[in-house]
Amino acid sequence: MLTSLAQLDDFVAGRDQAVGIAVVTACDDAVLTSLAQLTEAGVIRPYLVDPSDALEAKAAEHLPAGSFECLTASDDADAAAKAVALVREGKAGALMKGHVSSGTFLKAVVDRETGIRASAVLSHVAVLQAEKLGRLVAVTDGGMVTVPNAEQTEAIIDHGVAVMRALGREAPKVALLSAAETVIPRLPSAELQAELAAKTGREYVVEGPISLDIALVPGIGAEKGYPGEISGDADVIVVPDIVTGNALSKSLIYFGGGVMAGVVLGATCPIILTSRSAGADEKRYSIELAIAMGAGA
After folding, report:
1. DSSP character for 212?
2. DSSP 59-77
3. Residues in Cβ contact with 186 at an 8 Å cutoff, skipping those fewer than 6 apart
4. For residues 25 and 99, is the Cβ–Cβ distance under 8 A?
5. Nearest alpha-carbon partner for 20 in 296, 293, 275, 291
6. For 143-177, how does the pLDDT look when each residue is reduced to its tens digit (9 = 90+)?
7. Coiled-coil annotation: which residues (predicted)?
8. Which of 2, 135, 221, 273 is the S-S candidate for 231 at Cβ 3.0 to 4.6 Å?
């Protein structure tokens, strides 16, 4: 089981064949910097798609000659469409958002005729490493589904579990996050969580509603008399809405000294979807997480 994002560097190293990464609007220093280390190591082969005439020269400043391919596009939407086509053709095993708006990027992904959607639900899984936790925790979904219903939450749970299993946690524990470990009256998300937690037949633990302290801080559950299996050792935190997920992830990063890797699942390949303000390390870790997930995630 990986315990830090830095371990992803070794986790994806030594592959027999480089993984093709189709990058939408790649003519950006931060994007190209995030590709450099893995390209030099032969882990990935970037397919860079961008409308800028400066793409090839800019890429050559960051990447070894012959290690990448450049494709021209008429605009950002065309760049996204051409990158998605590379996935459909089998040239790329992952799709990466570069310096482009999420709306333009995702429109190509979900296009009914030419897209790569494989599931009714596309969800974002953030894998976070915070100083006081001393381990990796997945938070989902803070980037795609605004207020998930029961069916969407089931898919979000499955995607979170798949990510943690890829990182070595065979039987992840899933916490359905709420303000308390009991069903709060007139709080629809808590009622939904209780229904989902009551389902049987899963190969992993799902509990909720559950508060953040019980989910992540050892000993709190015992103090509160919480009867479940989760006691500060949840591997996946499933949030009730996108605002909660976004705020939790950013709080761990900006106020908890945390670092993050993120991936979107539900397409025919993993999708690397980071903020345009994300640093090169976060982008690289996200690429490595997508590689760890493999095709068909």
Report:
1. H
2. HHHHS-TTS-EEEE-SSHH
3. none
4. yes
5. 291
6. 999 999 999 999 999 999 999 999 999 999 999 99
7. none
8. 221
DSSP line for 214-252: HHHSTTHHHHHT--SS-SS--SEEE-SSHHHHHHHHHHH
Tens of pLDDT, residues 7-27: 999 999 877 889 999 999 999
DSSP state letter for 267: B
Q: Are 210 and 176 in contact (CB under 8 A)?
A: yes
Ordered domains of the chain (ranges, CATH) = 5-118+267-294 (3.40.50.10950), 125-255 (3.40.718.10)
Within 10 A of 4 (CB to CB), how many other CB atoms are there?
12
Q: What is the DSSP string of 150-181?
A: HHHHHHHHHHHHHHHHHTT-SS-EEEEE-SSS
How far is 235 from 195, CA to CA, in rounded Å? 20
Cα–Cα distances (Å) from 17 to 20, 45, 288, in that order, read 9, 9, 14
